[in-house]
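Input record, target 12 of the design panel.
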């Protein structure tokens, strides 16, 4: 088996046109309901993707160097960020590529007992990287940093992250700085899965030339309504998504998957 055509049509250019820096290629992907909701207001997990589109998402993971989520998603879902839904490789074939798990966690709230670290220590997952704000003389944050490192995580400190992440309701995460740190660490393609705050921040982020920092947008639309219990991915989405052009749509199981790519700013 191989990834669906909608993925190879959009993402194959990452291998034919390698990222030249200072940013890796970025794929922004998420599932939404028909009323554009991607999560619940109380923070509990909202599963929208059907079985077939979930498998597609795991194929997509194999096509990236890293998979990035925010600490809210990490705490609410305790994800594994692996490719466990894919069929076993054929006899004699190489195992599937596992992306590097990356968690945006300004205040180091990721539990050392999370599945990502348990899997890494058991040899069934890759070492997760935690991107946090610069740790100064705060004894509690220093203790959390040491606890995560002792559990196996690599902690990457990024200046400017703490104040931005505390500014609730404003998508101003220093995305270019975060991506520069990942590229400098050898990551040339990143799959961003959310949550809502992270998605909004990536939609808003621009390169110095004014281009979107996102290269590809792959959205799964589930045939369901969530209603007032749900949350979306930010206001004024029309302005944020200008500069993307349609590539392809494909019905995968019960879900419609839409792929777009960024176009250069005029």
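The sequence produced for target 12 reads:
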């Amino acid at each position: 088996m191989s990834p669906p055509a909608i993925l190879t049509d959009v993402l194959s250019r990452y291998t034919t046109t390698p990222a030249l820096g200072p940013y890796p290629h970025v794929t922004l992907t998420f599932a939404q309901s028909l009323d554009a909701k991607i999560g619940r207001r109380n923070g509990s997990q909202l599963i929208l993707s059907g079985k077939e589109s979930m498998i597609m998402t795991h194929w997509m993971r194999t096509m990236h160097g890293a998979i990035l989520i925010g600490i809210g998603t990490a705490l609410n879902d305790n994800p594994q960020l692996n490719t466990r839904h894919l069929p076993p490789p054929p006899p004699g074939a190489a195992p599937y590529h596992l992306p590097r798990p990356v968690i945006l966690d300004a205040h180091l709230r990721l539990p050392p007992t999370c599945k990502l670290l348990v899997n890494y220590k058991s040899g069934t997952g890759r070492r997760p990287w935690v991107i946090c704000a610069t740790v100064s003389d705060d004894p509690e944050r220093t203790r959390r940093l040491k606890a995560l490192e002792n559990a196996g995580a690599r902690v990457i400190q990024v200046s400017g992250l703490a104040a931005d992440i505390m500014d609730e309701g404003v998508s101003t995460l220093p995305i270019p700085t975060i991506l520069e740190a990942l590229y400098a660490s050898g990551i040339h393609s990143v799959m961003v899965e959310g949550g809502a705050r992270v998605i909004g921040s990536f939609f808003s982020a621009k390169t110095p030339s004014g281009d979107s920092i996102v290269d590809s947008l792959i959205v799964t639309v589930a045939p369901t309504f969530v209603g007032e219990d749900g949350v979306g991915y930010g206001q004024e989405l029309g302005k944020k998504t200008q500069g993307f052009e349609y590539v392809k749509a494909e019905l995968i199981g019960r879900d419609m998957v839409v792929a777009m790519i960024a176009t250069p700013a005029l």
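The chain is about 30% helix and 25% strand.
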